[in-house]
């Protein structure tokens, strides 16, 4: 399937795993980005600062995030697939973007660029549904690997991705001078 062919990939997703303690799983559906989703996605930029290290400038970080979001939406659906998660009331509760890139070895892979849920929808299966949709897009486009980057200080995200089978591959180390 070509990257710009959506097909029937974004039907409602029931999360097969048992919820973690204290977690509620709702029926979450995912669908491709529509132009009326832009304000919602842009409004989620602050959610992508979770785990930001204190030596980073929040204003510059948010500006960079807004640039990533703009680039993802502008490349949708030909180079990037932007996916929106909806709850049973059809309210937007999260989004993700997935695209293709190459590992430094030249091996092609899919890449989850951004993924965030609303604060109110945390621990309700939104992230799982979005990851499942990104993985489905990746398989449909012939990728055998999918990668993502998250902040080392975002312990919750790190635990979430590891729970889904993602493993550490590359690590960036920083030192303040």
Short key terms for the protein model shown above:
alpha+beta, Aminopeptidase, single chain, five-stranded mixed sheet, 177 residues, disordered N terminus
Secondary structure: elements and pairs:
Layout: E1 29-32, H1 38-43, H2 58-75, E2 80-86, E3 92-102, E4 108-117, H3 126-140, E5 146-148, H4 155-163
Fold and architecture overview:
By secondary structure, the protein is an alpha+beta fold. It has a single domain, classed as 3-Layer(aba) Sandwich (Aminopeptidase). The chain is 27% helix and 20% strand. It is built from four helices and five strands. Strands 1-2-3-4-5 form a five-stranded mixed beta sheet, with helices on both faces. A hairpin with a 5-residue loop joins strand 2 and strand 3. The chain starts with 28 loop residues before the first strand and ends in a 14-residue tail after the last helix. Mean pLDDT is 87; it is low at 1-18.
End-to-end span in angstroms?
48 Å
Largest sheet: 5 strands, mixed
Assign the structural class, choosing from mainly alpha, mainly beta, alpha/beta, alpha+beta, or little secondary structure: alpha+beta
CATH superfamily: Gcn5-related N-acetyltransferase (GNAT)
Task: Give unreliable regions as ranges.
Answer: 1-18
**Gyration radius, rounded:** 16 Å
- How does CATH name the architecture? 3-Layer(aba) Sandwich
As a percent range, the share of helical residues equals 25-40%
Shape: globular
Number of helices: 4
Mean pLDDT across the residues is 87
**Quantity of strands, as a count:** 5
Q: In percent terms, what proportion of residues is strand?
A: 15-25%
Order of helices and strands: EHHEEEHEH
CATH class: Alpha Beta
* Topology-level CATH name: Aminopeptidase
Widest sheet, order of strands: 1-2-3-4-5
